[in-house]
Amino acid sequence: MLLDDMVLDIEDFAYTHPGGAFLLEYNIGRDISKFFYGSYALDGNNSKPGMPNNKYAHSNIARKWANKLAVAALKRKNT
Q1: How far is residue 74's CA from residue 3's CA, in Å, rounded to a whole number?
Q2: How does pLDDT run across 26-76, given as a tens digit for each residue?
Q3: Is residue 65 part of a domain?
Q4: According to the 3-state scheme, what is the secondary structure of the chain?
Q5: Considering its fold, how many domains does the chain have in total?
Q6: How many CA atoms lie within 13 A of 4 on its CB side?
Q7: Which comes out higher in pLDDT, residue 12 or 41?
């Protein structure tokens, strides 16, 4: 999956993901940036009280984990 310009290999991490493996498996091959930064959420994926519209922004620790899962970086074309 993609996060910003990073390609993440989540194979070994999926089943230890605090939100459950389904969230990661569902998004294999997709850009997960909108989920990671909290601007979008799958329906009902966060049942914590007080969370508006079930959105969740990841912590700095989660970002460190994502950096560890990076196996490649996308290089953007200059236009």
Answers
A1: 10
A2: 999 999 888 888 766 555 555 555 555 555 678 888 889 999 999 999 887
A3: yes
A4: CEECCEEECCCCCHHHCCCCHHHHHHCCCCECHHHHCCCCCCCCCCCCCCCHHHCCCCCHHHHHHHHHHEEEECCCCCC
A5: 1
A6: 8
A7: 12
Q: Which CATH number does the domain housing residue 37 bear?
A: 3.10.120
Length of the chain: 79
d(CA 79, CA 7): 22
Range of the domain at 8: 2-73
State the virtual CA torsion across 41, 54, 63, 3 in degrees, nearest 10. Answer: 10
